[in-house]
Amino acid sequence: MRCPWLLLSAAGAALSAFTCANAQTSPSSTTSTNAAATLSRKDLGAGNLPADQVVINPKCAAVEISVREDVGVRVVCRDPGTSITPFTSVVGQYVEVRNRQGSKVTVAPCDDVGLRFLVFGNHDDYIAKAQISIDPTSFSGLTSLNALIFDNINLEKPQLQVTIPAGLGRLEVVSTNVLGLSLRASGTPSISTFNFRDTAMTALPAALYERQYKSKLQVNNLKVSPLEDVQQLNATQYANAIANLNTTALAQASNVDFVGDCSDATKAASGRLAVCRSANPRTTKPDTGSSKATASPFSSAPTTSPPGPPSTTNTGLIIGLVCAALVLAALAWFFIRRRNARRAQKQAMEEETLTFVNGDGTLSPTSSATWEARTTTLSAPDVAPLRVPMADLVLGSEISQGAFGRVYRGSFQGEKVALPYTVNGQPMRDEAIIARVSMGTLKVSFSSGADPAVVSLARECMAMAPADRPSAAVVAERMLQLCRK
Asked: Where is the stretch described as Disordered (predicted)?
């Protein structure tokens, strides 16, 4: 059984870990077997705040909970047709909400201005995790809250956005399904400490760079499982991160490195995340946001005890489910990729039936709206002068032949070139060449003496995703600039 009890020292400033052996539990007089919850008070010893432990009735699949100034803690079972009665009880400054059966817990607006510590967690490690649902009003009214902890539970939205009271000092996201974290607050938050133990985020958490805090942050147990090994931040975000974090200490305690300006050479070491500054940062995949690392002792804020031994049954089940999901995803990817490749191949072969009707490379009209649009682009006034007329190309001997066409030696204005043709001997259309490149059946290479700017432009034009290719006007302008050099 986990014991994440939080202690307040006699001076009211120092907090430390505590064990179950020192805690004395006394049942609440409001306990009822048919109520939505029970309450027990744990005496944590002289000089420490007592902890009010609210345990959700395992018969209740969906509950709503709030901590209110007028009634204290209130738990309502939301199961249709339930006979379970709402639970209400006065509580002190430290409340733990414990799940016993994987309930779905909705946190309603809380406004108890006397509440200082609030914990959501599991009653023990070997039962289904609760699913917590929050909204912007859940915690914003807890103006005296010092520590907010999510421990060994799941959040309904793994990309977690929490609206916190400005005075919150510590946020723990421990052993959860959270992938990213962003904070909202009125004014500049006073938060100084984060703990991300056993929570595998996919990027540096936005909470660490979306604003500048009043002082340097203490970030415990951050270790990212990145979707990409390089994370780009804009100049403001990067400056915020540098102001908020001791990046040297963070690099030593985690797998996150801050490397300055982004460049084509920016890379991360194996298993690490490189964070760089970019004028035009790309969006990080989601699942966008991030986190966990080496533990550092913390004696000035609420904490949790080390986890107990994992359940063999649960571990085996989880591994089996993960493996099955990976196999299904791989099969789906394979069939989708094969289907798309066949479609692209079919389209390319259909387009190859078009033939040239004159020496300048102009194609005869077709009934295809797609081809008409592409012909318009290729024949645009700013592009047409830059195209090579077919009449100026001299065809030579065949270099190679394959299932998708032939390549011939040739020359243009005295320079050697390679000319791709279809299997039936027709010059290969521009669109067919692009389709071959996209499918990987036609490789493009450049001589060692090729102008780097020309090579760069050519590679952009052959990008796999059409949205990543420059427009005809952009290509024409860049080619004109190259010709003027």
From this structure: 278-311
Nearest-angstrom CA–CA distance, 74 and 53: 13
Rounded CA gap, 465 and 211, in Å? 34
Which pTM value belongs to this model? 0.54
Kindly report the backbone phi and psi dihedral angles of residue 89, in degrees, each rounded to the nearest multiple of 5, phi listed first. -160, 145
Q: Is the pLDDT of residue 287 over 90?
A: no
CA distance 93 to 193: 20
H or E element in which residue 431 lies: helix 430-439
Q: 241: buried, middle or exposed (CB in 10 Å: 19+, 13-18, 0-12)?
A: buried
Residue type for position 136? P
DSSP letters spanning 321-362: HHHHHHHHHHHHHHHHHHHHHHHHHHHHHHHTT--B-STT-P
Give 30-87 pLDDT, tens digit per residue: 456 789 999 999 887 777 788 899 999 999 999 999 999 999 999 999 999 999 999 9
CA distance 239 to 235: 6
- First CA to last CA distance, the chain: 73
Provide the token pair at 471. Answer: 């427009």
Please name the residue that has the structure tokens 């194996």: 270
For 274, list phi and psi in degrees, rounded to 5: -100, 125
Round to whole Å and give the CA distance between 60 and 283: 41
Q: Which residues contact 192 (CB under 8 A, 6 or more apart)?
A: 169, 170, 213, 214, 215, 217, 218
